[in-house]
Design a protein that fits this description.
Elements lengths: L4 H4 L8 H25 L10 H10 L1 H35 L1 H15 L7 H11 L3 H26 L4 H9 L4 H39 L4 H10 L3 H29 L12
């Protein structure tokens, strides 16, 4: 026996923005409750396995120190992020415009992207220190650019290349220039890919900046995390990760909001139907 629409309303969940945000919030609350309950029920040592309350208490205690060093980390992450974003678009345009150039350089681009960049952080710090007086601090910016650049470049190349055969034929028939192709077709088609790359890119830029501080020891969230782990202060390490998570989530949500305004013809999975 089938169910009519009125019966289905009793158990169906509308796919609205409020519902999605509500379910996400409920999932976070359940995770925190489970985490706190597990540490309490199992009587885990808070020095090594802190609960959410221990982490929040530690965050409150070191808040002034975090706000003092946080601007240095955010500066490296944001500057590196926007430099990488600009470079990815500027480099993707000539590569997509010249198919031979793209085919020749793509193996090189993919090969560099597979290099474990985080593992090479000490070498980057060593090389940059020869070029600039403030090499250690500058290395954090370089790491943010280096880590976030390639994913955004690949996203831009895929987006600009996402044109169906009929559209290509039409552009050839009308004799459109490269500028006209990008202005009227390729840029519009590439925007969703570029925004997807931007969401991943900032998270990677933050990782690059933090790892740079972690290795170089320059003032910042990364060096605080290294110090906390060295002293087996796991609550402080969790508190630092919590701050980084909130910042990265906030930036990604901001990108989603901008995307929903710029690409108004495409529904975002988060900022879509209200």
């Amino acid at each position: 026996m089938g169910l009519n629409s009125s019966d289905r309303r009793w158990y169906s969940i509308d796919n609205t923005r409020a519902t999605r945000w509500g379910l996400s919030g409920l999932g976070i609350v359940l995770l925190l409750v489970f985490w706190e309950g597990a540490t309490t029920f199992l009587a885990l040592n808070p020095k090594y396995f802190p609960g959410p309350i221990d982490v929040v208490n530690e965050l409150t205690r070191i808040w002034s120190a975090i706000t003092f060093v946080l601007p240095k980390t955010l500066s490296a992450a944001f500057v590196g992020y926007f430099i990488a974003l600009g470079l990815s678009i500027v480099i993707a345009i000539p590569l997509v415009s010249n198919e031979r150039l793209l085919n020749a350089l793509m193996p090189f681009i993919v090969g560099i992207n597979t290099v474990p960049r985080i593992a090479l952080t000490p070498l980057v710090i060593y090389w940059v220190s020869f070029v600039t007086v403030s090499g250690l601090s500058m290395a954090n910016y370089v790491m943010a650019v280096w880590v976030s650049f390639f994913p955004m470049l690949i996203a831009a190349i895929d987006g600009f290349s996402d044109i169906d055969e009929s559209t290509k034929n039409m552009l050839e028939i009308y004799g459109s220039t490269t500028w006209q192709e990008f202005k009227y077709v390729r840029l519009r088609n590439g925007l969703p890919f570029i925004f997807d790359g931007m969401k991943i890119g900032f998270i990677l830029a933050m990782i690059g900046a933090v790892v740079g501080e972690f290795v170089s020891g320059t003032p910042g969230i990364g060096s605080m995390a290294a110090s906390a782990i060295g002293r087996t202060n796991i609550s402080r390490a969790f508190a630092i990760v919590l701050i980084l998570g909130f910042i990265s989530t906030g930036v990604v949500l901001a990108v989603y909001i901008i995307e929903s305004r710029v690409i108004f013809w495409k529904d975002s999975s988060i900022m879509g139907e209200s």
